[in-house]
Amino acid sequence: MDPSEARKVVLESGIEVKPVYTADDAPVTAPGLPGEFPFTRGIHPLMYRERPWTMRQYAGFGTPEQTNERFHALLSHGQNALNVAFDLPTQLGLDSDDPRAEGEVGRVGMAVDTVDDMARAFAGIPLDRVSTSLTINAPALTLMAMYLAVAEAQGVPIERVRGTAQNDILKEFVGRGAWIFPVAPSVRMVTDSIDFCAHNAPGYNAVSVCGYHLRESGATPAEEMGLAFEIAGAYLDAAIARGLPIDDVAPRVTFNFNVYGNLWEQVAKFRAGRRRWATIVRERYGARNPKSMQLRMIAGGGGSGLTLAEPENNIVRGAYYALAGALGGTQTMALCCYDEAYSIPSEKASLLALRTMQILAEEVGLCDTVDPLAGSYFVESLTSQMEQAIRRAEDEVRGMGGILVAIEEGKLQRKLARQAYEIERRIRSGDLPKVGVNRQVVKDARAPQVEVHPYDVAAAERKVDELRELRASRPSGPVEAALGAVRRAAESNANLMPPILEAVKARATVGEVTKSLKEVFGEFKEPAF
Asked: Quick one: average pLDDT of 216-234?
């Protein structure tokens, strides 16, 4: 058969895949060695041969006590780090007794109002040995402060605490919509966290830039990387403008990327992304420390890849997402669970996802050698093409006036919304294959039997009662004084982390700290599309 007559294959990033690749397609320059600039093959010399990827499962629901029980279950099954889910009221800076929180307390994550809640969530978990990722953004400073206060109460000095706060507020304006304050003060708060951690908590990563959510919002794999790099650049620029050296700032920034879709595109995305980020940090920012140039990342199986139809197929999809993450060289993996298209994960589904990662690491051979696809004519060619596509995505945002202008004026949101609509249209038309949805569909199939996590109304009511009891019993003077210090820091451009840390120690709530900041910063008004 003439290759020109073969079925045409075009990846989501717009790259056409040839039927056959030869040495003529491979880049002239070899990809180099792992652990060396530009880190195409991985940021560590021996990668998984020395230590497998960190395994985290996104977990948290109901009350802190219920979440603590799930944490201990996951750790007992061999998980070696935690990834905390917070409910929507907490994410939006609302207390559990706020009328706007009704029906959502503990529904999609753990409800946290005070530092006491955080202490109960991590009871019996040594915070100097277990690294924890806090999936929180707009009120990130408050939740980070609570976590650090709990570590101190355990006798763990702040400088020994390890973990990450998601804390990427710019992607909230583009994707998820869980924003509170306007863009400028929001970026200032991220910068405060970077500054504070650089000087006080060197083992804590102040921000994890989330290409993941941009991908979920309609970005292609190449755009996911390029837009994330532009967002990360905004945080670096703000920190450097404050006087922080790039080699103090860049190691404080990590990334969270998505994994679903074409296996080869995902692998090449990560290899190209490492190379591109190393080049940006060295050439644009003048970094000298190799650690500043390393793309430290978590790869999470993408929720948009999962389907309601035939949900057991998501078990297979998840395994391939994990395979792509491992072949792509991620340092941390958080695999989606097969029931997440319906509900927050059941304990059974969470264990199955964890076992999937463990099987890849311990049985299948993914830890045997570094970057096993290196040298492949196809993979090396695709990696170079992906790097070019990533750069085009960066250039497009710069053409919009830069990432901050693109977000403030809604330009980027409009672009991704159009693309998300087009993806859904292609799935419904069958142009974008989805097995069990628009391919190999079983007629008159029975409704899937999926265990849906029940919403515990009684637990939510108890949480509200506990909060009201705390307000009635705590001394009001120290709380008011601490919140006043937060407002003054916001007005004076002082770093907000120290006064917020004192406020949460005084038992100020998430909602009270947020209200104090709103009085100074105001709220973000979403631009009309």
From this structure: 97
